[in-house]
Amino acid sequence: MSNVQIITGNSAAAYGAKLAKVQVVSAYPITPSTSVTETIANWVERGELKAEYVRVESEHSVMTVCISASTVGARVFTSTSSHGLLYMHEQLHWAAGSRLPIVMCCINRGVGAPWSIFNDQQDSISQRDTGWIQIYCRDNQEILDSVIQAYRIAEEVYCPIMVCYDGFVLSHTMMPVDIPDADQVCQFLPPYKPHTILCPEDPRNINPVIFPWQRRDAEGVLRDGYMDMRWKLQHALEESRDVIVRTSRDYAELFGREHGGLLWSYRTDDAEVLIAGMGSIATEATTAADLLREQGIRAGVVGVRVYRPFPRAEVREAFRKAPAIVVFEKNISYGYEGALCADIKAALYGTGIDAPVHNFIAGLGGRDVKAGELADAVRSSLTAITAGKREQQTWLNCVTE
Amino acid sequence: MPEKLFKVNKEEYMLPGNRACSGCGLSLAYRYILKALRENTILTLPASCLTVLHGLYPITSVGIPCLNCTFASTAASASGIVAGLTAMNRSDITVVAIAGDGGTFDIGIQALSGAAERGTDFIFVCYDNEGYMNTGTQRSSATPAGALTTTTPVLTKQQQKKDMMKIMEGHDIPYLATCSPSFPIDLYDKFVKAKRIKGTRYVQIATPCPPGWVFPPRDTVKIGRLAVETGIVALYEIEDGKFRFTGRSKTLAEKGTRAPVINFVERQGRFKKMSMEQLDQFQRWVDNKWTEYLRRAEA
């Protein structure tokens, strides 16, 4: 029996954590993420969720609590945004380096200076190289489902996962969400059974100083050096693609919902132009594609759901027949281009796919992005492409003089 | 003293051979700390001299489970261990965070203050060697005025040491203590007591550092003693707000026979550029602290 409620993205994230039966939650307030952990605090204090709730004094400590609690074997959860995520930066590396299955929601928000509380994806994109898996959600249902899926993926591959979704656009917007049955979630996600925990019965010195080279332990067994461990993290992320796809499929079998494993597509089969994006801007792009088709332009959308590990093979397959590619994204790698655009182009290199790729930087700091504007932008790109312009970076709705 | 020594736990948790400098005051203290804490303990520590002592992967010189954490996060790391153990229904384990003065007075103070305010059930140990010794003797807020460090290489440090005990006492925690590796039984007893108490406990250890303070490694115990004899380090504990001198400092307080600070200063190369004015100020700083301790001890 379905239990559909009209809830915000932040409520959906909190329900995901509750259904995953998280055991330790640590939190520090920051807009627009705050109501995720407020909701959980309410459940914990009312006895509706049995979890330790640690109200720390900074985001740096939030992630530290997650790391340490996970090390002694607990399933942990937190959420943050923007400067909170940036303040955690050191601990994000530490969490991934420790190979802990921490799940965190990042409610995407612009970063200062100057202050902006509004949405873009600069915060999580700038944490791209910390060794975390990053999932970008396009609606509130996907947020809830992705949090539950994230625990199963993380606990299989021993990598932390950031479930990212757009601040206010999703976090504070109410949508119908089907809340899964708790027993069914238990069936999908059994309790966390770590391969190693820190305890007095098995004393270990976890994360000490390590040499560049391999070294023998007291029993004479050759153990990894620093670089060998880094390769294992890279390998784990590369291998996690299959786990992500399989988990998404298993989830669909039980709950009847599939959000796409690594990426999803919309009306791409006969498309003369493919629009790419992540998160809610990709959802907006599906409306733009419909508009364009009404105007006689066969547009389709490729939504990148998992940004790290980057879906290299799937991107190649998705764009194999694309005559033109337009990438919309809410981030900028200063001095170059949008991070997604750069990665898509890199994935296509050497494959013989020779489509022109245009990049639109859009919606930074919450600037409105309407479907009609995306459609106009795609049309202008197609005109430029016809005129021979293969590459182009445009800041949408932005004063650029 | 001898019969008290027999009461000390015979088990050794610091294994033979570690990477601490010769004459390290911390390693003397650490042996007794671990004896007092015993097996059912989990340690967490940031990048510091103690990380070096614990050894390089995959070999460790310490037989107690330990989680290394980043520099600013020691007390938060302990909070996470406590929360995780509670969630896992393990209430039999003592959680202990250990950091140097840099990791306590400076970069670790925010997380420590947060954990203490929350009443986190753990012991925070600061081994105070009065500077960033692991990185080669830079100034910290625990460095005394008049000391040379590599970041105060010409003029010496101009400010007096931060009173971290007072800051921690401001958190209304149930137990605070100071100790010295030169008085191991006093140190041992305080850790045995700290382990029994619930809530946040803070213990600060004055650990002499031969390379950082510039004295011969054979003099570590002597320098530690002089710190206490001169009153620069006072041995005391504060239990539920009640101040009490302990050990040698109790005797000094009763007899009123503190030695002048020059006895401590003259034996260390770090004070070789200390001016007469700085020396006078140092003596006055110690005298003022003692006036306050004596007032509290009598109250």
Could you please describe the fold and organization of this structure?
The complex is a heterodimer of chains A (401) and B (299). Chain A has 401 residues and is of the alpha/beta class. Chain A has helices at residues 9-19, 34-45, 59-71, 82-87, 89-97, 122-125, 140-157, 182-188, 226-255, 280-294, 312-318, 339-348, 371-386, and strands spanning 4-7, 24-27, 52-55, 76-80, 103-108, 133-136, 161-166, 175-178, 205-206, 215-216, 222-223, 263-266, 273-277, 299-304, 306-308, 325-329, 357-361, 391-395. Chain A folds into two domains: 4-188, Rossmann fold (3-Layer(aba) Sandwich), CATH 3.40.50.970; 263-395, Rossmann fold (3-Layer(aba) Sandwich), CATH 3.40.50. Chain A is 39% helix and 19% strand. Chain A has a seven-stranded mixed β-sheet, sandwiched between helices. Chain A has a six-stranded mixed β-sheet with strand order 12-14-13-16-17-18, sandwiched between helices. In chain A, helix 13 links the parallel strand 17 and strand 18. In chain A, helix 1 (9-19) crosses helix 2 (34-45), helix 7 (140-157) packs across helix 9 (226-255) and helix 10 crosses helix 13. The radius of gyration of chain A is 21 Å and the shape is globular. Chain A starts with a strand and ends in a 6-residue tail after the last strand. With 299 residues, chain B is of the alpha/beta class. Chain B has one domain (15-298): Rossmann fold (3-Layer(aba) Sandwich). Chain B is globular, with a radius of gyration of 18 Å. The mean pLDDT of chain B is 97. Chains A and B meet through strand 3, helix 3, helix 5, strand 9 and strand 10 of A and strand 1, helix 3, strand 2, helix 4 and helix 6 of B.
Short description:
The complex is a heterodimer of chains A (401) and B (299). With 401 residues, chain A is of the alpha/beta class. Chain A is 39% helix and 19% strand.
